């Protein structure tokens, strides 16, 4: 039985019941694909329903404020995805009259849409015979065909893309693409794949050569950077605090946070008040300051680990315009700040 036939037969018996598989609406399929980038299905599912509920059409998403979109995205991380999502929605709504491009090449022109997403939408919604290649596909192809070219290199991406395209069922690309992704997600998993009952075991190079744990090959990532954040959580007698919007090109652009003092290493209070970033807040030298967490909270991102302390600054009046405690939860914040807010209980 051909490779494609084996995969689709497995898929029809084992596929998950996922909402975006019940539609060919490009808005909903595109939305699900963007949400599921760098995100597990179980985590992404509530966000998918949330976005469909709050922004039922591409026009609703396009017309929303960035702050509202970021608030709905809060907790998913990689916030540039949310900003790109809305930019693409605005383009579709304003330039294309709400109609999504119906082919791979034009889909690639949308902000935040790369090869994988364009292939997925084009094949699932418009039956265009273009193969998808995501982490699951890399894993399945590398193991079955014994491909040891690193998957995170230009050469690797090209090689796996060409291989996937040759295997694609041209008559039903949507089903094949979903089948190979689902097979990697549920059966040919990173750890403890179900090799003994695998329909591809007879032809799988990795299984027959005992190389399962060695494939796929991925070059080591860049060194993780360690950063030390100190948040000044102002608490006034008027029951107000200070939240500031992050600017620039760094992490969490557009999200809100408490006044931040970043230090080269873990800081004590005496070290903290010497930092230039503290000079605008003379009140912390005069009023009572409590350290909320003695042990820094470590927030891990893909390329950096952030060690965080929250300093509660009790004061009569705020040094700048503040926000009422009851409005704190209305603003989009990073997951790190969200967890603190929930724990502290504004």
UniProtKB/TrEMBL annotation:
Pfam families: EndIII_4Fe-2S, HHH, HhH-GPD, NUDIX_4
Cofactor entry: [4Fe-4S] cluster
InterPro entries according to UniProt: A/G_AdeGlyc_MutY, DNA_glycosylase, Endonuclease3_FeS-loop_motif, HhH-GPD_domain, HhH_base_excis_C, HhH_motif, MIG/MutY, MutY_C
HhH-GPD domain mapped to chain residues: 35-186
Keyword annotations from UniProtKB, A to Z: 4Fe-4S, DNA damage, DNA repair, Glycosidase, Hydrolase, Iron, Iron-sulfur, Metal-binding
EC identifiers of the protein: 3.2.2.31
Stored CDD domains: ENDO3c, NUDIX_DNA_Glycosylase_C-MutY
SMART domains linked to this entry: ENDO3c, FES
GO molecular function: 4 iron, 4 sulfur cluster binding; 8-oxo-7,8-dihydroguanine DNA N-glycosylase activity; adenine/guanine mispair binding; metal ion binding; oxidized purine DNA binding; purine-specific mismatch base pair DNA N-glycosylase activity
Cofactor binding comment, as recorded: Binds 1 [4Fe-4S] cluster.
Described purpose of this protein according to its UniProt entry: Adenine glycosylase active on G-A mispairs. MutY also corrects error-prone DNA synthesis past GO lesions which are due to the oxidatively damaged form of guanine: 7,8-dihydro-8-oxoguanine (8-oxo-dGTP).
Entry's family note: Belongs to the Nth/MutY family.
Name of protein: Adenine DNA glycosylase
